[in-house]
Design a protein that fits this description.
Distance between the termini: 38 Å
Number of helices: 13
Order of helices and strands: EHEHHHHHHHEEHEEHEHEHH
Largest sheet: 8 strands, mixed
Number of strands: 8
Strand content: 5-15%
Shape: globular
Helix content: 40-55%
Radius of gyration: 20 Å
Length: 314
């Protein structure tokens, strides 16, 4: 009787800087020798997932993040400045936003632009990480999820420019301008699929491992303005929408990212460690559900080693 092992799909969710925890998830998969047959990513999950699909391992990804954080492109970017304003404990959320606009002279520009970040700055960041290849040339099948803001539908990008697909998936509403691609106006995939579990299943995954990097839904903030209430309401809505999506997963990994702001990329190493710990807590559950996977991999690795030894024998 022919036995086909289950296809493992990794569904990497959105969450800005918190998505650095995805790198920690990948590291444990590498260490345990678990295969990844397809990757579906939303927003930062698309960025990390695209790199992994191209063959970058977790250590190479971590090195690239460290390198990027020390570039002038990042230090001078609006992302970095939003983070600095957000980190102030003395200001309310509304005051932080107002202070950012006032200090950077962006308020007037924002009234006439589709996003706070310049398109060129955003593209430079994506280009720094993602190779200039076609999606179909990835080593691991990869799918980026975006949202068509005209039709209101999710769009799964599986061919064409990898960089363009990642940019569309990462185009956070109000922060990054929508991306025109294939006749559609695309924005962040998290609007529809904060964690793209359903897409992973539809694309052929038999076993879906979902990674959610959303923050703790409980809040100790004060809600002093309509903006505060609006932002909080959006967080609650996203939390419950994500809960529905996560029901499609076989295993859910949820790194403890606390209430970390989505722009705080400077804590990348801590976030990677959070991803490692969360995955280690779930790895036995994954292995138990896939009893033949690891045994098969061991046989394959043993066969490869024997083959190498045979080549060395004179």
């Amino acid at each position: 009787m022919f036995w086909r092992r289950k296809r493992i799909g990794l569904a990497l969710g959105g969450g800005g800087a918190r998505g650095m925890a995805h790198i920690g998830v990948l590291r444990v998969f590498e260490r345990e020798g678990l295969p990844i047959d397809l990757i579906v990513g939303t927003s930062i999950g698309a960025l990390v997932g695209a790199c992994a699909a191209c063959g970058f391992d977790s250590f190479q990804l971590e090195a690239r993040v460290d390198e990027f954080l020390n570039t002038p492109d990042f230090r001078d970017s609006a992302l970095h400045n939003i983070k600095e304003i957000q980190s102030s404990k003395k200001l309310s959320l509304t005051q932080k936003i107002q202070a950012f606009f006032k200090n950077r002279f962006i308020l007037a520009q924002a009234l006439f632009r589709a996003g706070m970040l310049q398109y060129e700055d955003f593209q430079a960041m994506v280009d720094f990480f993602v190779p200039d290849i076609q999606i179909q040339d990835c080593l691991i099948p990869f799918y980026a999820v975006a949202t068509d803001i005209i039709a209101g539908d999710a769009v799964v990008l599986s061919k064409g420019s990898l960089r363009k697909a990642v940019m569309a998936s990462c185009a956070v509403p109000a922060a990054v301008p929508p991306i025109e691609l294939n006749g559609q106006l695309l924005s962040d995939g998290g609007v529809v699929y904060l964690v793209p579990t359903t897409v992973a299943r539809e694309e052929g995954a038999d076993f879906v491992v979902a990674v959610s990097v959303n923050t703790d839904i409980r809040s100790s903030d004060e809600f002093r303005s309509a903006m505060d209430v609006y932002v909080r309401s959006t967080e609650i809505m996203c939390f419950h929408l994500e809960k529905c999506r996560l029901k499609e997963a076989d295993v859910v990994i949820h790194p403890e990212v606390g209430h970390l702001h989505w722009t705080d990329f400077t804590l990348a190493r801590d976030l990677i460690e959070c991803g490692i710990k969360a995955t280690e807590a779930k790895i036995s559950e994954i292995q138990k559900a896939l009893p033949f996977q690891k045994r098969l991999l061991r046989r394959m690795n043993l066969s490869d080693r024997k083959g190498e030894e045979g080549k060395k024998t004179p």
